[in-house]
Specification:
The structure is a homodimer of 355-residue chains.
Chain A: E1 2-4, E2 10-12, E3 36-43, E4 46-47, E5 51-54, E6 58-60, H1 65-69, E7 72-74, E8 77-81, E9 87-90, H2 92-105, H3 113-126, E10 138-147, E11 160-169, E12 177-181, H4 200-214, E13 219-223, E14 230-234, E15 238-243, E16 246-249, H5 260-271, E17 275-278, E18 281-282, H6 283-292, E19 295-302, E20 306-315, E21 318-321, H7 329-341, E22 352-354
Parallel strand pairs in A: 2-5, 12-13, 12-20, 16-17
Antiparallel strand pairs in A: 1-2, 3-4, 3-5, 3-11, 7-10, 8-9, 8-10, 9-22, 10-11, 13-14, 14-18, 15-16, 15-19, 19-20, 20-21
Bound molecules: pyridoxal-5'-phosphate (PLP) (2 copies).
One pyridoxal-5'-phosphate binds next to α5 and β19 of chain A.
Pfam families (chains A, B): Aminotran_4
GO molecular function (chains A, B): branched-chain-amino-acid transaminase activity
Family (chains A, B): Belongs to the class-IV pyridoxal-phosphate-dependent aminotransferase family.
Chain lengths: 355, 355
């Protein structure tokens, strides 16, 4: 069952497919995985032969570093199928570069570009039936790296696994999204790992998010840990604010994930003649604009949900609702991105990538 | 091979022991594990029957939350054997309370006290031959909890594993320890998870620590992320500074681990008539004292190494050496703690606990 490409990518195909057991109209995000996975081991200072194997459990020592010291980074990407059954990725080189940037910050080895792209393309083509046509349908792709070396010593591991798993997806968020602006808890420290897509950054948000949910919010918008005066980003998305006709978003720094959707939103908005300002945004500014009725939109940007319009926000003990616009920036920009992703429009940016 | 105690603790004994393969005089810290492990699953809102089983690999889905979102907490404890073959723990209730505090902050379920103590005692008695007599020898105990539920959705898992593994240990640090005082990178944010013993806090330190190692330091002493003016703690230990005859250490807060050794050092030092001040300690204060020759000691406190004397420190581009004292506070206090831990002295504090 094994065969080899020029790159020494070993492929072991699944004997049977699980695809007929899956209800593609009722997918909970990230819960069903395709028939295959990509896996590559780092041992003795190098990445060994990458493999595609049937999706399966990992057998891993209880002392593996990832469980104790959290050396773990990941990416989130999507594959889209167009009307001609062609499969597309969106700016995948940026995801590749970012996972290596994350790895570097976590003292983990970087992964070779050819392994990544060859592995990913082979995997997608093998599991292509799992990618359904139609706007909103996609295959969510989760590359991740974990420190697998046994041993409970608090130092970088010498053994890792680079893995890609894929989950068919519809839309990420159901229902209306209200956000709570953080005034006590925080997500990342200056000089810390907030800009890395590392596992620990996410668990750190769960408890404060749980508290926010108890108050009726779905997500937290984090502020700077130092003063809580400046808006940074949400749990899994960057955040934009529209005051009057101006679109504001925070600059990236070592506390904020440099979102690929964020960059795309900025470029598309500018191209559409929208006045975009990338600068520190004060909580107060947003609250004052909301009071005056000038705060027209808040939306999040991220691979999972593309653009998530926010219907209201809370800060300290006050809550504000946002107006319902018919010509929201969020809708216009979302449509432009989706059209590129699904190969329904020209792509003058060169963002689309054939898998 | 299974039998059951009143607490429904299931015990499956290993068929053979690995103990004869182990060179107890040449143990690398945390790399060899005993014959058994404790494991308990959290499913459907409750902790199931706890088990002791032969030490073995975990079989875990690649989408398990711990790999992606870092829900993982742990503890570090030690068991000591006295001259009469009795096994002792040191303030274990504090470790138990702390792992639950860490779990709470990471939105993970707390673990029942009886399960923890029954499981731990049974495990230690089963693997008691792995605990060697003699000062410095001990069994390092690693309780930890990981989110095992499959699914790449960024929200708290509903399935967890509470595990205890044990590694025979000699001393933790070899050689002299020089520390670098952080002036750019940081360990924890105010409002973040620094006070939790959660996996991600450790990986976050590896890269800056690597940079410090390249400059000739073994560890980093973290400062507040906001101003870098105040000394906080080191990677796996709290830090004490002796200026003249005064012993200084930072107060705990939501960025600092509330160390059990730290608390013990403070209490013992006070009892020995040492003037202890628990208050924010400025980097400048230490540098000025070093310049004047008043900085007599720096030492770290933590379960693994008990007390680690620091022989020198670096700050920005300067380096200072510390004097070699014959009657160092660090030695006096270390001896007092070891005597309690190894049942060589009275324990008026009630810290010793028979396993
Ligand atoms: C913390 C955080 N911010 C922002 C984003 C959005 O980034 P991207 O647009 O690259 O998906 C993500 C994840 O996808 C994230 O995890
Ligand atoms: C970050 C950190 N600080 C301090 C300590 C010392 O705590 P304790 O004395 O309870 O072992 C540890 C670990 O043990 C630690 O991981």
């Amino acid at each position: 069952m094994s065969n080899t490409t020029t790159l020494q990518l070993e492929v072991e195909k699944a004997k049977t497919s699980k695809i007929n057991e899956v209800d593609f109209d009722n997918l909970a995000f990230g819960s069903v995985f395709t028939d295959h996975m990509f896996i590559c081991d780092y041992v003795n200072g190098e990445w060994k032969t990458p493999k595609i194997i049937p999706y399966q459990s990992l057998v891993i020592d209880p002392s593996a570093r990832v469980f104790h010291y959290g050396q773990a980074v990941f990416e989130g990407m999507k594959a889209y199928k167009d009307d001609n059954d062609q499969i597309w990725l969106f700016r995948p080189k940026d995801n590749f570069d970012r996972i290596n940037k994350s790895s570097k910050r976590m003292a983990m080895p970087e992964f070779p570009e050819e392994y990544f792209f060859e592995g990913l393309k082979t995997l997608l083509n093998l599991d292509k039936d799992w990618i359904k046509k139609g706007l909103g349908n996609s295959l969510y792709i989760r590359p991740f790296v974990i420190a697998s070396e046994p041993g409970v010593m608090a130092s970088p591991a010498e053994e890792y696994k680079f893995i890609i798993i894929c989950a068919p997806a519809q839309a990420y968020y159901g229902g209306e999204v209200r956000v709570k602006i953080a005034d006590h808890y925080s997500r990342a420290a200056s000089g810390g790992v907030g800009a890395a897509k590392t596992a620990g950054n996410y668990a750190a948000q769960f408890y404060p998010t749980k508290l926010a949910k108890e108050e009726g919010f779905q997500q937290v918008v984090w502020t700077d840990a130092n003063t809580h005066e400046y808006l940074e980003e949400a749990g899994t998305m960057n955040v934009f604010f529209r005051i009057g006709d101006k679109l504001l978003t925070a600059p990236t720094n070592d506390r904020i994930l440099d979102g690929i959707t964020r960059k795309s939103v900025i470029e598309i908005a500018k191209d559409k003649g929208i006045d975009v300002e990338i600068r520190p945004v004060k909580v107060n500014e947003i609250v004052e604009a909301a009071k005056k009725g000038n705060l027209k939109e808040i939306f999040g940007s991220g691979t999972a949900a593309v653009i998530t319009p926010v219907v209201g926000f809370g800060y300290k003990d006050k809550k504000w609702d946002l107006p319902k616009l018919t010509d929201a920036y969020s809708s216009v920009i979302k449509e432009a991105i989706l059209n590129i992703q699904y190969n329904k429009s020209e792509d003058k940016y060169g963002w689309r990538y054939k898998a």
